[in-house]
Amino acid sequence: MIKDCLKNAEIYYNISDKLKLGFEWLKSTDLKSAKPNKYYIDGDKIYANVQEYQTKTESKYEAHRKYIDIQYMIKGEELIGVCDKSDCKTCTAYNDSNDIEFFDCKKEDTWQKLREGDFLVLFPNDAHKPSICISSPNIVKKVVVKISMK
Questions:
Q1: Rounded CA separation 64/13 (Å)
Q2: Mean pLDDT, residues 27-53
Q3: Number of other CB atoms surrounding residue 106 within 10 Å
Q4: Are residues 83 and 61 in contact, defined by beta-carbon separation less than 8 angstroms?
Q5: In CATH, what number is assigned to the domain containing residue 76?
Q6: Most buried pick, 13, 99, 106, 150, via CB within 10 A?
Q7: What residues pair up with 120 in beta bridges, in sequence order?
Q8: pTM (predicted TM-score)
Q9: Across the chain, what does the average pLDDT equal?
Q10: How many domains in the chain?
Q11: Which letter, b or e, does each residue of 13-26 get, where b requires 16 or more Cβ atoms within 10 Å of its Cβ?
């Protein structure tokens, strides 16, 4: 997992060309005006899902096998629990078509506050529990850039 703010994204460009392309898209797109939708950056290799939703008090851990997530907060704030997938037990089997598996994790959460301008890069070993409210449920606007592992 990597947590930082978008203005520092260039530090991470050398990790992969695909990650760099995802960050460049985030920096060059008017995300405050973007409508909730799926945006293709490089076909199925790199795409973005702009979302607006209400945060909640609880959710399940999830992880992905085919994609790395860049979760970027456009407006609002939320908590995201993160732990190593090896410390979790599958509660909903992996769905290949949606690239998602759900977990119960017994280990203590590492909580990350995602505020406007912040991003988290979540790798396949990072089980994560997104969309958790900080004090009370509120509406957020977030984009998740999906970066293919292939």
A1: 22
A2: 98
A3: 9
A4: yes
A5: 2.60.120.370
A6: 99
A7: 3, 71
A8: 0.95
A9: 96
A10: 1
A11: eeeeebbbbbbebb
Quick: pLDDT tens for 88-108: 999 999 999 999 999 998 776
Count the alpha carbons within 13 Å of 57 in the hemisphere toward its beta carbon.
2
Residue 71: which H helix or E strand, with range?
Answer: strand 67-75
* Sequence-distant (≥ 6) Cβ neighbours of residue 110 within 8 angstroms: 81, 82, 83
| Distance, first Cα to last Cα, the chain | 19
Estimate to the nearest angstrom the gap between the alpha carbon of 33 and the chain centroid. Answer: 20
Report which DSSP code applies to 149.
-
Domain that holds residue 62: 2-148
Mean pLDDT for the stretch of residues 117-130: 97
- Residue 35 DSSP code: P
Look at residue 108 in the predicted model and tell me its pLDDT. Answer: 67
Q: Are strands 100-105 and 126-132 parallel, antiparallel or unpaired?
A: unpaired
